[in-house]
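B., you asked whether I could sanity-check this one before it goes into the benchmark set. Here's the sequence:
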Amino acid sequence: MSEKLLTRRQVEAMTGFRRSAIYARIAAGTFPAPRREPGCYAVRWLQSEVQAWIADWVSRSEMAGKLVGTKLENRKKNLKSAA
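And here's what the prediction gave me:
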C-alpha cells in the first residue's frame, strides 16, 4: 500500500478544522506535523497519520447529543426550580 500525501485543504476537509486550528494543535503537539521537501515551500501530511489521529479522536470523544442533552436537562431543571 502506498502512502498518500495530503494538502492542507485536504486535511481541513478531513478534520473539519480550519488552518489556524490545525496549526494550533500542531504547536500543542496534539496533531501530526506536516512534512516539507527540502528546498520546497509546500508542506504535506501523511494520510495514514491524519487518519490515525481522527480514529484516536473519535475513540476519546463523547457524542455531542449526549452533552447537549445533559445541558438541556440542567436548564429545564433550573427553570422549574426557579418558578
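One thing to flag: The chain is about 60% helix and 10% strand. Otherwise nothing jumped out at me.
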